[in-house]
TrEMBL record:
Keywords: Hydrolase, Magnesium, Metal-binding. Gene3D superfamilies: 1.10.150.520, HAD superfamily/HAD-like (3.40.50.1000). Its cofactor is Mg(2+). GO terms for molecular function: hydrolase activity. It comes from Paenibacillus gallinarum. This is HAD-IA family hydrolase. The keyword Transcription does not apply. The keyword Cell membrane does not apply.
Length: 220
């Protein structure tokens, strides 16, 4: 019987790609030094360097400053990113309806996210979803990163859940799905065309609201 559901953040609950473009449009408009290049060039290059969030923004800004040839502090740009990105956080369609439904079922809910503690917590608050979750684990704070199964087991212990009674939903086939399965959970893939489709036949969803049906089918 499923008693708890845990989630990845970026690419699962947070539509990071859309949120990032919203932030970059705003930052470009505010910082006139970037205007040496056209807005779409700035945004496209940032997204390329960012590599779906796997390159931290200190490196991205340093590279952009060098390529554009501008006299800006990457440290100040990074601080602006850390503090301002939360104002542009956009959730995937169905986010609140899905979370409301799961809370009505009295499920324990948690988040396990790789990343920097302050930044990721800002984004969770920016999405206005922090109050839904019983536990939130960020890799920097925990000293553990997915796909290390220890971070999944730590989360389950704090929630008082057994792996067999728990679901994990994430967009990364290895860090989220395979890792949670290795931890004894039911791993579900939130499909993302950025990643090659897993060779293994995982349960998968395209839209967050599909999780309601999966939960209902498992519970019956």
């Amino acid at each position: 019987m499923i008693k708890g559901i845990l989630f990845d953040l970026d690419g699962t609950l947070l539509d990071r790609a859309t949120s990032l473009v919203s932030f970059l449009e705003n930052q470009y408009d505010r910082i006139h030094a970037f205007h040496k290049v056209e807005k779409h060039v700035f945004i496209d290059r940032f997204v390329q360097l960012d590599q779906k969030g796997y390159v931290w923004k200190d490196k991205v800004y340093q590279q952009l400053i060098e390529e554009i040839g501008i006299d800006l502090s990457w440290q100040e740009l990074l601080e602006d990113y850390v503090e301002s990105f939360q104002d542009h956080c956009i959730g995937f369609s169905g986010l609140f309806e899905m979370l409301d439904h799961l809370k009505e079922k009295n499920l324990k809910l948690g988040i396990i996210s790789n990343g920097f503690g302050r930044f990721q917590m800002n984004n969770i608050t920016g999405l206005k979803i922090d109050h839904y979750f019983d536990e939130i684990l960020i890799s920097e704070t925990e000293g553990l990163r997915k796909p290390d199964i220890k971070i999944f087991k730590t989360a389950l212990d704090r929630l008082g859940l057994e792996p067999k009674d728990s679901i994990f939903l994430g967009d990364h086939p290895i860090n989220d799905v395979e890792a949670s399965i290795n931890a004894g959970m039911l791993g579900i893939w939130k499909e993302d065309d950025f990643y090659e489709r897993p060779s293994s036949e995982y349960r998968s969803i395209k839209n967050l609201l599909e999780l309601k049906d999966i939960f209902a089918n498992i519970s019956n």
